[in-house]
Amino acid sequence: MMGSYEANSDTGSLSPVDSVTSSAVDLRIKERSLWASDLSTSQNIVDRTPLVSLAKDILKYARTISGHFAAHELLQPSFALDAPETWPSELPRDIHDVRTKLRGAVADMNDLAVGPKESIMWMAWGYHDVSLLRYIQHFQVAEAIPLVGSVSAEEVKFCFHRS
To answer: Is residue 112 in a domain?
Structure first.
């Protein structure tokens, strides 16, 4: 009866492989081939996960909005210094609805990316962010800091003592 053999990489010799080990090796080979043949199925499963589904929705909504802005020669939303501070007041209803869907999907994506426990912590910390913004506005900190260039802490501190 002819058995299975495996090579020993250290000695270069062949050793008989028992049926249990041979079965495990055969199983691993079958798993690899199933994995390779099921790659497209796996990709379909991944494409339907909440993160990927939301990412697709976000991209679809962003393209719709950007397309509308481009078609109507409106400035695109951006973080540039000369970017519009507000959205156009007269958006068509369908674009307004897409913007609402975009904001919801982005919020959901953030919640998934952060996770439930951290979401609650960030919600609590958000209160502090709002408080800080209130103090920045009250003490006019933003007015003391130039948009371009730099300012020393002493110069900013001096602005507070004047008011």
So the answer is: yes
